[in-house]
Amino acid sequence: MKQIIRIAIVIAGLFTTLIASAKDYSITLSSNVDGAMVYLNGKLISHTTPAIVSISDKVAKNTMMFQFVKEGYETRTITVSYNKKELKNKPVVYCQLKEDMSKPIANDPTVTKNMANQRVSKEKAGQTEMERTIIRWFFDSDPRGARIFYRVISSVPTEVKNTNETYLTTTPLEETRGFNIQGLTYENSRDVTIEIKATKKGYEDQVKRFNVRQALDQQEISGFFELVKKEVPNVVNEE
Question: Residue 109, SS3?
Answer without folding.
Answer: strand
